[in-house]
Write a structure and sequence with these properties.
7-stranded antiparallel sheet, alpha+beta, 8 helices, two-stranded antiparallel sheet
């Protein structure tokens, strides 16, 4: 009995050590230590050739141009429809299945009902854009993760925002673009427009920088004095992303910025700027659109430069089958290759 128990204990220890040994081996295969910055990166192998390899080498080939144009065409067309009618279910094998009774086009009036904007002058609204934040890896040495990211010096951000502001060499106390929640453009006469920046009126529970910003905004609202380094801008711009009344990848840029007034509306501070319109939603992917590709899409022309390895393999196999003959002798069948020396001698 003692021997049996001892053997069972040995097997359990072997299984336990083997488990962690296998986990360590798999981790060493997938992850490798990056000595340049001290972090771990996933090692992937990419098969050479094709449009992906050309894009990595910055070679603009016909296949790359077609791939870019296809991407932007799909992006622009998909933005016209409302995906809320699509329902995801699972089949008997637990595979996702997407169904839609009707894929309706986006209704701009429904969007405006749920997006309240300040417009006392009853001007035409050009577009509404959320100021989204895009996280990126910081490049600071000895960066303290517990430290607020708002204390990062000028030019080095822990994340990017949709709104980009250009200043005249002034280092503001607070980068206001990090707190803007929404951007609204209202049209004026001539080449001018009102650009409204929406900012919160309530600070977070543990936020210090946002509390200081809100205190400054409240002081500006009470005194009606807009002279501040917080809103001293040369220009600002952004690229549309799921914006109202605008396709994606469109550039909006404004300069000659003059602060007009600050208001409180729907739980937000609204700072209104009178601006000169530099770019009113210019579609940046238009340079990838060509008339030749329009004709190809109409007639469904095949690719010319791209090589389909599977189609090429099928054609080679078909040629090999055509070069083979069958000879029936009684009940047996022999396949002879015309290119073989034995077949040539027999012929």
């Amino acid at each position: 009995m003692k021997k049996i128990i001892r053997n069972i204990w040995v097997y359990i220890r072997l299984a336990w050590y083997s488990l962690f040994y296998g986990m360590e081996a798999a981790n060493s295969m997938l992850m490798s230590q990056n000595k340049s910055n001290g972090d771990s990166s996933l090692q992937q192998t990419i098969k050479p050739g094709g449009a992906l390899n050309d894009m990595l080498e910055e070679n603009v080939t016909q296949e790359v141009e077609e791939l870019r144009e296809k991407h932007y065409r799909i992006l622009k067309e998909a933005d016209k429809f409302d995906p809320s009618t699509i329902i995801m279910t699972f089949d008997s094998e637990e595979n996702p299945v997407f169904t839609a009774n009707r894929l309706r086009k986006k209704n701009k009036t429904d969007f405006m009902k749920h997006c309240n904007v300040l417009n006392e002058e009853d001007l035409k609204i050009r577009t509404i854009q959320d100021n989204k934040k895009f996280e990126k890896k910081h490049s600071l040495l000895n960066y303290d993760e517990n430290k607020s990211d708002l204390s990062i010096p000028l030019g080095v951000y822990d994340y990017d925002t949709t709104l980009t502001i250009e200043r005249d060499g002034i280092t503001p106390r607070i980068y206001i673009e990090k707190f803007v929640t929404k951007i609204v453009v209202r049209e004026k006469e001539g080449n001018r427009a009102y650009v409204d920046l929406y900012l919160p009126t309530m600070a977070s529970q543990f936020g210090k920088i946002d509390a200081i910003l809100i205190a400054n905004l409240y002081k500006m609202f009470e005194t009606n004095n807009l002279r501040s380094d917080l809103i001293d801008f040369l220009s600002f711009e952004w690229y549309s992303d799921k914006a109202w009344n605008s396709s994606d990848v469109c550039l909006f840029k404004y300069d000659d910025i003059k602060p007009e007034y600050i208001s409180v509306y729907d739980g937000s501070f609204v700072i209104t700027f009178d601006c000169n319109v530099v770019s009113d939603g210019v579609y940046l992917a238009e340079k990838y659109m060509t008339k030749e590709m329009d004709e190809k899409y109409k007639v469904k022309a095949p690719k010319t430069d791209a090589v389909d390895i599977f189609a090429l393999t099928r054609s080679i196999n078909a040629e090999k089958k055509e070069n083979k003959k069958e000879i029936n002798l009684d009940t047996k069948t022999f396949r002879l290759d015309e290119d073989s020396d034995w077949f040539k001698r027999c012929s």
